[in-house]
Amino acid sequence: MVDDTWSSALHRLWQAASRAEEVSALADDVYAPLLATPGVHLVVGTRWEDPQILRYMRALRAGSDSPVITATARSVPEAAVREPGDEPVVTRIPVAGLDDAGWPEAELLRRTPEATFVVCTFRLDHRGWASLGVGVDASADVAAVEGRLAQAVDVIVACHTGIIQRGREARRGADDALLAEASLQMDSSLDVEETLRRVARIAVPAVADGALVHLLRSEGPEFVSATHVAVRQQRALEEIGRENLWLAALLARRSEDEDTVFLSGPELDGSPFADTAEATEATEATEADGDGDGARPVAAEADRHSTVISISTLRARGRVVGSITFVYQRPEARLPGSAFLRSLATRAALSIDNALLYELRRHAVLSLQEHLLPSQLPVTDQWDLSASYEVGDPMLDVGGDFYDAVPRPDGSIALLIGDVCGRGAEAAALTGLARHTLRTLLEQGTDPGTALSRLNRALRQERASRFLTAVVATLAPRPTARRCSPRAARGTPRPWCSAATARSPKCSPAGSSSASWTTSRTRATRNASAPTTPWCSSPTGSPNHGRRAAPSSRASCRCGSPPCAVSTPPTSRRA
Looking at the record, which segments are called Disordered (predicted)? Predict the structure, then answer.
């Protein structure tokens, strides 16, 4: 015959188990139905950590509405023999035969010495086990009691497994969200040190209580950043990362193939993270004296949990770029897994490596660009020359803009400005060829127009796929006035001159235009604050066509238009 009372109670227990977030929440739905079983006068359960650490004990006696709970953890070495295997074990033992040394439940059961203790021990997870037992008298159906105990234990184990599984899924979702956010944050900067600092800030406190990041240099690990949830420990952690010999030696011993390693307990002896009573007392004494500078070991901050550290190698594209050390002062259950730390380290390493590669290429581009321009301008008694070159965009490619000032045999100075279409290695090669060809010819006294023609012929012979716009002007001091004249220009259609109130008449064809700058001093500079209302522009096929170049001085064109500023072909650079 089916016991409807127990069946209903078991059904309610399964329902409660599906909603429970802690196994202890099932206590009322387990203890009361078992206590209602005929012949049962006491229900008692225990929870153990490791083989012999009693975490708590809960008991409910017949006729009582309130359970007796003992929540003080204590060691019971003799209880280690009771630890079950993978399957639950049901034991039947007379109360009189219980040994207090291994059975903490005996004290509660001895009120009925002639009773029998029926107990089921079972494993919850790899960290601990539990027991659920009842005290029965002679009137009880012991077989039925054992069956109910086994059913209740099945529900408890299933509930605990479900809680763990849901916790893992929730944690996996949180980890994925954190990794995605970390990738966005770290990829938003191409500065190496800023990227490293972001790694530390993202990880604390979501992943750990503290973090130290080191960058691998040729001379060894270099400390870059540290952060900690406790403000007073921030400086201490920075000093550890920067100066501590124990940590420096540990990082130096790490091989490239090592995975994330966790260190705790005796492994931290002699380190600034060691959990020692002396460290804690010293820190407390220092703080009591009002001289706390935060320089004591971080382990002194942990009041309840032992310090654990993990070290992950930052490896990207087959090379090690650094390491990240996490400091934990939290329960073991809240420590991140090795797979998560490995994924975070991989993302951080890629971001750091990208920043390093960007910095290397940027340095190479700037170095090459500098070598395509004159290292210095000529110094003469008649002219004071200066130049400014500004990159118009952040692209990591060498531009095709160039300038130079060349002293000529007759005492004049030839100024040349040019722009090669496009960017990259081909543009850089053509830029170098053009500048050095023009410089060599002009230094030899070649007429600017002839020099440009010979350069054009050389480019055609080389079958250059890019076009070049260039202008050459000569500066020659005269007794009556200081004047400079553009002598030749190549690479553009005929220029257009315009003024603020005049229509734009056509000037002389490209290559034969002539204009003069009237100046009161023998100083030629490019000044962005000069008048900009009248201007002269030569249209080109470059993407920068249409920009307005800042004129350097006033000018008068042969076409008869009002005085205007003569600009070089518009480019994204300024010389």
Answer: 279-301, 479-575
The residue-averaged pLDDT of 162-186 equals 85
Domains of the chain: residue spans and CATH: 4-165 (3.30.450.40), 189-362 (3.30.450.40), 384-566 (3.60.40)
- Strands of 27-182, DSSP E: 40-49, 53-61, 68-70, 74-75, 89-94, 116-125, 128-136
Distance CA 165, CA 153 (A): 18
Query: How far is Cα 217 from Cα 205, in angstroms, rounded to an integer?
Result: 28
SS3 269: coil
Q: Which residues contact 277 (CB under 8 A, 6 or more apart)?
A: none
**Helix and strand totals (H; E) in the chain:** 11, 23
d(CA 488, CA 132): 102
Integer CA distances (angstroms), 305 to 176, 264, 273, 299, 331, in order: 27, 11, 12, 10, 6
SS3 304: coil
The answer to whether the CB of 497 falls within 8 A of the CB of 536 is yes
Long-range contacts of 499-506 (CB under 8 A, 24+ apart): 499/533, 499/534, 499/561, 499/562, 499/564, 500/533, 500/534, 502/561, 502/562, 505/559, 505/560, 505/561, 506/559
Looking at residue 517, what is its pLDDT?
Answer: 34
How much is the pLDDT for 57?
A: 94
pLDDT at residue 270, rounded to an integer: 86
The DSSP code sequence of 403-471 is: EEEEE-TTS-EEEEEEEESS-SHHHHHHHHHHHHHHHHHHHTT--HHHHHHHHHHHHHHTT-SS-EEEE
Instruction: Report the range of poorest mean pLDDT among 373-382, 440-449, 506-515.
Output: 506-515
- Token code pair at residue 219: 């001379």
pLDDT tens for each residue of 225-246: 888 988 888 888 989 998 888 9
Residue 284 has pLDDT above 90, yes or no: no
